[in-house]
Write a structure and sequence with these properties.
This protein is α/β, with parallel strands linked by helices and about 250 residues long. It has 2 domains: about 160 residues, 3-Layer(aba) Sandwich (Rossmann fold), CATH 3.40.50; about 80 residues, SIR2/SIRT2 'Small Domain' (2-Layer Sandwich), CATH 3.30.1600. About 35% of the residues lie in helices and about 20% in strands. The two termini are about 20 Å apart. The model has no long low-confidence stretch (mean pLDDT about 95). It binds ligand BV8 and zinc ion. The site of ligand BV8 has 38 residues, from helix 2, strand 8 and helix 10. The site of zinc ion has 8 residues, from loops.
């Protein structure tokens, strides 16, 4: 796909030294992981409030865990795609020039880290973390299949839950502060592969724009953020992101 990106955009990319990026499920779509909304989305025939809320989990932990176990299984075999790799390369390029890239993700699949990104802020937690609802013990656990569904804590036999943020739950305070600080201090804010419908993540674009950062969106379709950004690029993140960093010398 010939992506003739505007010169002023390529200029901003090569000049920027403080970059913040917000990614959503669309960035992992080309790794074979389903997005939430839109055709074929995870929530197309599932009830969001049954699967991604504490109430849904309390009502039916087994059902919620079957959904997360299925998503973990998909993510286990997924490989980072060109979009993930481009962001990792951009972070490294900047680190050699005294710059920084803060990668804020709503994804819980761990593919940014697998691609080599170091500075990753997991706003909605991680599907690889299991947290005990009784003693609070957290551990990274990529076991598949899980020994039992729902899984139990090895210490206290309490019910384990996915270490993700559900609707109505606070985001991890440290992650939220890091993300807000990144948005407040960046010169360039790129939002990629998100429908821009979930807050406070989606609000970070506005935080960046308000302080004068140049803002770019990469998405297959228009979103509520498209009118708020300086450049709204239509296409696959696996093609757009590598084209953006091709501007770096
Ligand atoms: C909070 C769990 C405050 C992890 C997720 C009314 C009632 C209750 C709450 C609210 C309300 N109104 C607003 C709220 C707040 C609520 C919210 O925003 N609701 C929305 C739906 C209206 N937010 C919260 O509840 C948050 N917490 O606010 O707490 C609080 C205050 C005090 C006290 C207590 C609490 C918590 C939000 C986190 C929810 N958890 N998931 C998991 O299972 O993964 S959110 C869920 O949606 C996922 O995490 C996902 O990351 C997130 C966003 O989805 P996207 O990543 O954008 O994916 P989506 O499928 O939507 O879009 C994909 C996009 O990619 C599309 O645009 C598509 O075009 C594009 N695309 C596809 N392929 C490609 C592509 N683009 C480029 N290339 C491609 N190849
Ligand atoms: Zn426990």
């Amino acid at each position: 796909m010939d992506l003739s990106l505007p010169n002023d955009l390529l200029q901003r990319i090569s000049e920027a030294r403080r970059v913040a990026v917000l990614t959503g499920a669309g960035v992992s779509a080309e790794s074979g992981l389903s997005t939430f909304r839109g055709p074929g989305g995870l929530w197309e025939n599932q009830d969001l409030m049954e699967l991604a809320t504490p109430q849904g989990f309390a009502r039916d932990p087994k059902k919620v865990w079957e959904w997360y176990a299925w998503r973990r299984e998909q993510a286990l075999v997924a490989q980072p795609n060109a979009g993930h790799l481009a962001l990792a390369r951009w972070e490294e390029w900047l680190s050699h020039r005294g710059g920084r890239l803060d990668l804020i993700t709503q994804n819980v699949d761990g593919l940014h880290q697998a691609a080599g990104s170091k500075n990753v802020i997991e706003l909605h937690g991680s599907g690889w973390v299991l947290r005990c609802t009784r003693c609070g013990r957290e551990r990274l656990d990529r076991t598949h299949p899980l020994p039992e569904i729902p899984p139990r804590c090895g210490e206290c036999q309490g019910l384990l839950r996915p270490g993700v943020v559900w609707f109505g739950e606070m985001l991890p305070p440290a992650a939220l502060v890091s993300a807000q600080t990144a948005a407040e201090n960046c010169e360039l804010f790129l939002v990629a592969g998100t429908s821009g419908t979930v807050y406070p993540a989606a609000g970070l674009v506005e935080v960046a724009a308000r302080q004068g950062a140049a803002t770019i969106e990469a998405n297959l379709e228009p979103t509520p953020l498209s009118d708020a950004v300086d450049w709204s690029l239509r296409g696959r993140s696996g093609e757009i992101l590598p084209s953006l960093i091709a501007a770096l010398d």
